[in-house]
Amino acid sequence: MKLSILVTSFFTITAVQAQSLLNATASYPQLSNFTELLSTFPDLAAGLLTNINTGLQRQTILVPSNDAFDNYRQRNGASISSLSSSDVGNILNYHTLPGALSSSDIQQPNGLVSETALRNSTYARRENATDAGHSLPQVVYISSTETPTGRKIKARQISALSSVDVRSGEDNAIELEQTPGNWSGGVFYVVNGFLTLPVNQTDTMTAANLTSFVRGLVRTNVTEGTNAARGLTCVCPDNQAFEAISNSNDNLTDGPGSLLATVSRHGLTGSYYTTNFTDGDMIQSQNGYPILVTRRNGSIFLNDARLVGSNYIANSGSVHALDRIMGFLNTTTNETTPANASIYDNTSNIPTPTPMTTSMTSSDGVIPTSDATDSQDLPSATETGASGSAAGGNGAAPTGSTEGTSSATSMRGLLTGASVVGTAFVMSLFVLGGAKD
Q1: Got the DSSP string for 233-300?
Q2: What is the pLDDT of residues 163-212, one digit of tens each?
Q3: What is the dihedral of CA 351, 353, 355, 361, to 10 degrees?
Q4: In this structure, is the dihedral angle defined by the CA atoms of residues 28, 48, 364 and 229, taken in order, positive or negative?
Q5: Which ranges in 394-435 belong to alpha helices (H)?
């Protein structure tokens, strides 16, 4: 009797594990448009399919509901299936996360920054000189609670006692249903919109209504350089705070009191998110000024400036909003001199940057792939030349993509089902007495 139950359980679990994503989502009526999309583009692969038949790669797929397709069609006047295979491939890659993320994984108290399979260099430029040529994939920010450091701006479209938001490019947030489905390559979650492919720094700032800082970049003629940089985080004072200094400052480029020096103090080399702003860490601005990170009462401070908006995903890194212009830190006393109008009236009071004795050792707050359940590094997809605006839940359809998304393995494996369940899974069933997820 026990053997019969064990054998029955084995074949039941094996059938679940062997389901392709197409077969797994076919049982959800609200996902019929997604299954149709997969059938329309059967040769797309990248992160969705690579190595699926080995049983080693585990992935999380964010599957748009039929409502997401309807909203996209209403905003763009055309269905998402009318896009080129390259554009659809980039969008699907952005909806693909490494590792089979559990419900607890996506509900971290401080949020979760997760890599995706999106590596197209138009939308993923997070690496900097210290990365030694190593390409970094684009990320999403997943948050289950409203916090002072990560406010939710977009209105919720799914009613629930609690919700999980996924932040992507252009300050677009969609909602994720917290109960996962299973397929042969990992898990999937239903989402009520399409993620937006990230854009450059200044467009990201504009989407987050940090327009005064953008004007400061324009006035000092550094817009092009800011958008060309790789691996950049901009911490931007909100409009009221920045205008109090910039509107009265006619000194654009001369010395530490200039507008150029001010905007440069708010640029950080590397991709910083709220997940890697660690209490007590010291960061150096792009023009050499020290910045002390402090976490207090649920808020994050950079010197004396508090984060009031955070984790805006840009193609080259991230953008955060501050409630004021950062003051000047004395690294001996850890006291900050406020950057108010009076100090700019007498620029001799503005200190020159000094080298720091300690610095933050990590500039990437992305969840390590090894921390995700049964995950392994996603293989690099060959980058394609794409330009123009990104597709996503904000209704911006991509334009100008020229080449198809490369794939090491055809999507046909996803559509027809995995041929190998995985030796490790079978062994765990019999040796450990149960299946490991």
Answers
A1: EEEEEPHHHHHHHHTT---SSSSTTSHHHHHHHTEEESB--GGG--TT-EEEBTTS-EEEEEEETTEE
A2: 899 999 999 999 999 999 999 889 999 999 999 999 999 999 999 999 99
A3: 120
A4: negative
A5: 412-416, 423-431
Instruction: In whole angstroms, give the CA distance from residue 255 to residue 263.
Output: 13
The C-alpha atoms of residue 84 and residue 81 are separated, in whole angstroms, by: 8
Q: What is d(CA 368, CA 356) in angstroms, rounded to the nearest whole number?
A: 28
SS3 state at 202? helix
Half-sphere CA count of 278, side-chain side, radius 13 A:
11
Pick from 64-68, 116-120, 153-157: least confident: 153-157
Q: To which H or E segment does residue 313 belong?
A: strand 305-314
pLDDT score of 134:
77
- Tokens 């949020």, residue? 111
Amino acid at 288: G
More reliable by pLDDT, 149 or 87: 87
Give 161's contacts (C-beta < 8 A, 6+ positions apart). none
Q: Which residues contact 157 (CB under 8 A, 6 or more apart)?
A: 67, 174, 175, 192, 193
In 50-126, which residue ranges form alpha helices assigned H by DSSP?
Answer: 66-76, 85-94
User: Could you identify the residue written with the tokens 């006393």?
Assistant: 333
- Taking the C-alpha atoms of residue 96 and residue 393, their distance in angstroms, rounded to an integer, is 16
Helix (H, G, I), strand (E, B) or coil at 345: helix
pTM: 0.78
CB 174 within 8 A of CB 192: yes
Strands 59-64 and 186-191 turn out to be parallel
Sign for the CA dihedral angle at 143, 145, 150, 154 comes to positive
Other C-beta atoms closer than 10 Å to the C-beta of 342 total 9
Average pLDDT rounded to a whole number, residues 274-279: 95
- Whole-Å CA distances, 396 to 11, 15, 62, 149: 45, 39, 19, 27
Strand, helix or coil for residue 40: helix
CA separation for the pair 301, 321 (Å, rounded): 11
Which two three-digit tokens encode residue 178?
């917290």
Instruction: Give the DSSP H/E element, type plus range, for residue 399.
Output: none
